[in-house]
Amino acid sequence: MNTTYTDAELAELDRIARRIDIDAPAERVWDLVVRPGWYINDGEVDPAPDLRHEGDVTVVRHPALGEFRFRTVELDKPRYAAFHWIGTPYRDESSPSTLVEFWIDERDGAGVTLRVVESGFSGLSADPAAWLKEREGNDKGWLAELQAAKAFAEKSAAARTTRS
Predict the structure, then answer these.
(1) pTM of the entire structure?
(2) Contacts of 53 (CB under 8 A, 6+ apart)
(3) In this prediction, what percent of the chain has a pLDDT beyond 70?
(4) Averaged pLDDT of the chain
(5) What does the pLDDT read at residue 1?
(6) Exposure letters 120-153 (e unless 16+ CB within 10 A, then b)
(7) Which of 1, 27, 130, 148 to pair with 103, CA 20 to 30 A apart?
(8) Domains within the chain, CATH numbers bracketed
């Protein structure tokens, strides 16, 4: 990587913060975000993912991308969920990990704002070029994943309203 960053810039780049408004109840969005690794997909949330549990670790298996491992840090229904992303096909469970946090904030009127912060990229490698590359992929990925969450939650909320 040819770009040189100051320490302050690297500190700012250590995290990704995104948000999206979703026209669905907090409980419906909670049902999604409480599921570790729901964002391992091909642009559409899998309603029946391939999950298994190994003690306190949840393993998400994607047919094309491989296995991803998550450890639940905290759940505060229906407002906050946090997970350590402890293993990927490129990083094993003994390697440093990022922290993925979700907040569900009710909006005036209807729906919620879903916020995500992924932090700890600088701990993934002593070489800033290496962790910045991983961060770049996730930065783009969170934009797509929040759109997928919105589509999933709003579709599910609409289906429940239609059945009622």
Answers:
(1) 0.89
(2) 59
(3) 91
(4) 89
(5) 46
(6) bbbebbeebeebbebbeebbebbeebbebbbebb
(7) 130
(8) 7-163 (3.30.530.20)
